[in-house]
Design a protein that fits this description.
alpha/beta; 8-stranded mixed beta sheet; 9 helices; globular
């Protein structure tokens, strides 16, 4: 596994928009404030041409222009790491225009983003054997004040953070809008971790995962080298971290069935399942917990649910590809990530 160098004080943070750009509110103002905050912290910034674009369908620009921007800014030596401007809908369409061969041969750098950015974070790891960060998109860093999750995410890039812990509470409905673009997370719900088959659990293995919506879309395509990756790291085993956006509980169950039958869950040491955006939904007697457990409980490994991951913030930033030690004791969770 290739690990990028840590972002040094005074270094340059690059920004790209392979999915949505920061062209509309509240993202536009939040991104501008994030840039100001980083400048005040002593960092330089470098913006790709699509950061404020809104010319595409489900992404910032045409697939060709988005793929070109992502490849160019990953390969250039004028920035030290990359943070994606935002998530979106159709980042998968840019993949044919991303030069993964050159990226595989280039000096690795940190790439951070989540949701639709699974198309990059997951493929950097499985195609290029390069670690990435599944963490907040750029506009989130514009909030005032930063939530501890944002300090953790930035600490991953600087090398100061390698262990993350569950946060005190979470947001089920945000208050940020066009008139209030810099509001912090609206924390109203207490963290309650559900661990199966026992409440206390420990596991070790390589972290792999992202947004399920994107992963099942990649499954079976020419970009799906998952079985080769897990075979390479079979001695370490895999800890899957998975969260969902648009999937209802039935879609969630179908997605887990599909991943299982594709052989993705061989050599699994455990699962970290984030709160789905359909949190609390029940359809025909199926809830978010049984949608997952009915498919994967037979593996006999720890399944930790309602983890701070994904679309109901805050989210623990995770280094995809790192060797992790996960500990759950009661309602507390810690994830120690080693760059080995």
């Amino acid at each position: 596994m290739r690990y990028p160098k840590s972002l040094k004080k005074g270094g340059t943070i690059g920004f790209v928009a392979p999915s949505f750009g920061c062209s509309t509110e509240p993202y536009h103002t939040a991104f501008l404030n994030a840039l100001k905050k980083w400048k005040d912290m002593g960092y330089s910034t470098e913006l790709g041409p699509n950061c404020f674009a809104s010319e595409g369908i489900g992404i910032s620009n045409t697939p060709e222009k988005c793929g070109k921007e992502l490849s160019e800014y990953y390969l250039r030596d004028t920035n030290d790491c990359l943070i994606s401007c935002g998530g979106g809908e159709l980042m998968c369409e840019i993949l044919d225009d991303v030069d993964f061969e050159k990226i595989r041969q280039a000096e690795p750098k940190w790439y951070m983003g989540h949701s639709d950015n699974t198309n990059m974070t997951y493929l950097l790891t499985t195609l290029c054997d390069t670690a990435s960060v599944y963490g907040p998109n750029a506009a989130a860093f514009g909030m005032e004040p930063w939530h501890p999750a944002l300090y953790d995410a930035f600490g991953i890039l600087t090398g100061e953070v390698r262990t993350v812990f569950g946060y005190d509470g979470w947001e089920i409905e945000g208050q940020k809008d066009e008139e209030h673009p810099l509001l912090p997370y609206h924390i109203t719900e207490a963290r309650i971790v559900h661990s199966y088959p026992e409440q206390n659990a420990r596991m070790e293995g390589r972290l792999l995962g992202g947004c399920i919506d994107c992963l099942v879309n990649l499954l079976g395509t020419k970009y799906d080298h998952t079985t080769e990756f897990i075979e390479k790291y079979r001695e370490d085993g895999i800890i899957w971290f998975l969260e969902s956006c648009d999937l209802n509980v039935m879609s969630l169950r179908r997605a887990f069935w599909q991943m299982e039958h594709a052989g993705w869950f061989r050599f699994t040491k455990g699962f970290l399942i984030g709160r789905p955006l359909c949190f609390g939904q029940e359809m025909m007697g199926l809830n978010q917990y049984d949608a997952v457990l009915d498919v994967i409980s037979h593996y006999g490994v720890p399944v930790i649910m309602d983890v701070d991951l994904g679309h109901l913030p805050p989210m623990m930033p995770l280094i995809t590809g790192s060797y992790a030690r996960v500990a759950v004791e009661g309602n507390d969770i810690s994830i120690e990530m080693k760059c080995i």
